[in-house]
Amino acid sequence: MDTYILKIGGSSVTEKDNNKCKAKTDVIRCIATEIKKAKSERSFRLVVVHGAGPFGHKLVTDYGIKDGIRDEKDAEGFVRTHNSMEDLNKIFMDIFREEGLLGFPVQPSACIVQKGGKIERFDTSIVSKLLETSKDIIPILYGDMVIDSKLGASVVSGDAIVPHLAKKLKADRVLMGTDVDGIFTADPKLGRNARLIENISKSNFNEILRSTGEATNVDVTGGMRGKIMRIRDSLVGIPVVIFNITKEGHVYRALMGEKIRSTEIRL
Ligand SMILES: Nc1ncnc2c1ncn2[C@@H]1O[C@H](COP(=O)(O)OP(=O)(O)O)[C@@H](O)[C@H]1O
Ligand SMILES: [Mg+2]
After folding, report:
1. What angle do CA 188, 247, 168 make, to 5 degrees?
2. Which ligand gives the minimal distance to the CA of 14?
3. What is the dihedral of CA 230, 217, 106, 159, to 10 degrees?
4. Per the confidence metrics, is the pTM higher than 0.85?
5. Ligand 2 mean position to 143 CA, how many Å?
6. In the chain, what are the domains?
7. How far is the CA of 111 from the centre of ligand 1 (A)?
8. pLDDT (tens digit, 9 = 90+) per residue, 203-212?
9. What is the tens place of the pLDDT at every residue in 180-200?
């Protein structure tokens, strides 16, 4: 049975453009119903990783703890950022439950330790066991603040969790949902002439990396550029689809293996 990892970008499910800690519950509900529909029509295992939006980025920026924690105030920021991410995760959990899905929260800060802002240890055995227990259980992870052996604590992005998990679980496909249709020749939010790049392979990767920027809004983890650098570093051999998760029907079609407007990366 295929295993898919679905990343739900923070920009799609929060008021990221206004930098407000508010979830777009209608978008989350739509995603949940589409997962439910796909699950009723074919068998696959699924892991969900959701991003943070302002629930993470705003607090990290306000407390100034992007590069680690040094004093008591920073420690407070670390705890408050984690608390805030749990608030967002709870919104996902409630909606998934209401839509009849077996979402199971897996707290990244309880299974990941970083070193200098990079994952050093990640106990993925809990996620594997959950998937083995039942094909209907959907482990749900999220961007978080975790213990860091060099910096005290640091941010682990959903975009960093996804490739690590995909590799460990030998996922068959990674679906990265974001708020734009994929990777463009330039930031589509800034220029009208941006053109969607439908396929990325080894041969055009470097050229594309040069034209890809960070997010236009507050994102401490590197936006689109951060995403594809992490994909290059760990996802060799696993196909990745970057698509617009705010468009109705896209999650369903992506889970059914149908072609949607997107960027497909095969390295
Ligand atoms: N070349 C590009 N192609 C697509 N998006 C880009 C590009 N350069 C910058 N971006 C920006 O990256 C954003 C996606 O990154 P991010 O906000 O971190 O999404 P997410 O919340 O899904 O992680 C897009 O909304 C877009 O504004
Ligand atoms: Mg992001």
Report:
1. 85
2. 1
3. -10
4. yes
5. 9
6. 3-265 (3.40.1160.10)
7. 28
8. 888 888 776 7
9. 999 888 888 887 788 899 999
